[in-house]
Amino acid sequence: MSSQTTRLDLIRHGEPVGGRRFRGDAVDDPLSELGWQQLERRVELLADRGLADWDVIATSPMRRCRAFAASVAERRGLELVVDPDLREIGFGPWEGLRHAEIPERYPEQHAAFLADPVDGRPPGSEPMTDFVERVTRGLERLETNHAGQSVLVLSHAIVMRAACVWVLNAPLAAIAHVETEYAAMLSIRHNHRGRRLLGLDNGLPGDEA
């Protein structure tokens, strides 16, 4: 890769223990066996394509990201950067609840959230503007500290959506229109032409459609 280009490869964590539920920065479940396998498949797929030539491994401090990131860093003998700014958004009273429980327990909050995912977040949750600002700060710090390098970033669903908004200079409301499945990958390049979003890949071999 040219020394003029910095690459950030963001990969969402795999399935955590406990399955799908609202996990922000207050619920720190580890990866399930399946979740670990999903991430291994993602890395293997990238290696087959010659796209796993990372110089640095960065991660959210949450266990569902950090454990796998540490494993990759140790296996490859690479620096591990743990950045709290890359943690998932806080969901306040919804933390730990399954998606089906929200409309039952908090019908008014749920309706407000569906109508406006940016400003209709539940009371006590992290404001979307604050969240996007800190994620942007973390990603820009990686670009600055590792200019000209390739960085693997173990991340979260909404962190990756915030990265899309950042690169595309899109309105915050666009964050609700990006799908990020377990072990999804988002690749960003930054060079003399500015930042470019190379694409979002949600698929993994062997996954059900």
From TrEMBL:
EC code: 3.1.3.-
Keywords on record: Hydrolase
Top-level class of the enzyme under EC nomenclature: hydrolase
InterPro entries for this protein: His_Pase_superF_clade-1 (IPR013078), His_PPase_superfam (IPR029033), PGM_Phosphatase (IPR050275)
Molecular function via GO: hydrolase activity
UniProt keyword Cytoplasm, yes or no: no
Top-level taxonomic group: Bacteria
UniProt cross-references to Pfam families, sorted A to Z: His_Phos_1
Protein name, entry field: Histidine phosphatase family protein
Native source species: Guyparkeria halophila
